[in-house]
Specification:
Layout (H helix, E strand, L loop, with lengths): L2 E5 L10 E9 L2 E4 L4 H6 L4 H7 L9 E5 L8 E9 L9 H14 L5 E5 L5 H14 L10 E6 L2 E5 L10 E5 L6 H25 L7 H15 L2 E5 L1 H7 L2 H7 L7 E7 L7 E12 L19 H16 L4 E11 L11 E3 L5 E3 L7 H13 L5 E6 L3 H7 L4 E5 L2 H13 L4 E3 L17 E2 L7 H10 L7 E6 L5 E2 L10 E2 L4 H12 L5
Length: 517
Amino acid sequence: MTALTLSTAGAATLRADAIVVGVAKGAKGPAVAPGAEAVDKAYDGKLASVLESLGATGAEGEATKLPAPSGLKVPIVIAVGLGTVPDKDEAYGAETLRRAAGVAARTLSGAKKAAFALPVEAAEDIAAVAEGALLGAYAFTAYRGTEKTAASAGDRTDRADGGVKQPLGEVTLLGTKPRDKAHKAAAERAIALTDEINRARDLVNTPPNDLYPETFAAIATAVGKEHGVKVQITDEKALTKGGYGGLLGVGKGSEHGPRLVRLEYTHAKAKKTIALVGKGITYDSGGISLKPPGHNETMKCDMSGAAAVLAAVVSAARLGLQVNVTGWLALAENMPSGTATRPGDVLRMYSGKTVEVLNTDAEGRLVLADAITRASEEKPDAIVDVATLTGAMVVALGNRTFGIMSNDEAFRTSVHEIAEEVGEASWPMPLPTELRKGMDSPTADIANMGERMGGGLVAGLFLKEFVGEGITWAHLDIAGPAFHEGAPYGYTPKGGTGASVRTLVRLAERTAAGDLG
């Protein structure tokens, strides 16, 4: 785990493996950003021209390594792009700083310590750089076992890291005040938040032969015990007794039975309660409606919503937020077998409503429906569900943006604004009433499929049917950004991303502060 420290030390005096500075796109070429004055001085005021001669432009995502001059106590300088120089009296945006710090941390994998001399004027800047660096330093190495390499005939050498560089060991933020309450609080929040985002990433990246409903529930129990979060597990026997037809119907094809995990964080001074519900399909084969080759290789990520909910509830506990937060992890493995639910089967849900299953690969909405109904029984002030729910949402919004649907337009707007504020791309989506008719069933109360066009909206309308009367609800479809298959960028790694955790935590903070309804 990467450590974070604040320091008043100057860039020219701190000893580290590297120092990170910012460079922006100026009107006449690269421009050195604030915070790097001492480093620029060590280059006799010619750092910008040196960078330009190396091809640096200051564009976002750019990282340029160059040897440090004798005036610094580091061997390497890393210049990261910040994009266009902001207008006078304006500062670099939080997301710009977050991404630049992430680029630097990824570039410095394998290093023990790096000093970051990026533009940090306010506590918000410190938070952004800290978050970006700690998220950018992430690496999933749990399955990088001992590698046997033949050094010579009959000679074998063990490499415990499997030949993979370890994450940057320590990040020191220069230009900060360790004893300043606001600076210290920003750093502590960043550490707690990124710890939990990275935990969510670990869960998403864990292979499904090791992460299935029972083991996921066990992890949640251990994490809850560590951070003061109450955990209650409803196992297969209890689900059957309770009539959780959605969870049982999805999980019945697997040898790993389903679970419903309830997480609870409470604060003595809390005035409001929010419930977070996460889809936790630990592997989604599609069931009898089997996914074709090319569509099932990454389906370990179909529990990203549950991972995000766990991370958000634990973050709220670690931050001591004055709000009650319950989390519901709807865990199941969707597999084909002789006991699996068939297309045409009818399930009786926990709510008592019956659902005709037309496609067993539309399973996420079934487990979420039971969990939303159960969460509604406790009459929270708001419910937010999070799920890698539909490919249709990816078609609509791409791989980096999640959709937001709600039964309350003002709440949808608030969630969207919060997501944008914390740097998570999102977009408000409608719930057109005319699409509901497509889910009419001649056999049951509702079918789990409707019109093909607008499939992401149809899924949202299905979930809306199970929200308790009078409860404000929002649905986040994170199918696009939850799992990144391309090359890393900014602070986003390949694989699990921890999408929506920052949005959920800020929502809890806003609720605690009384800023939401």
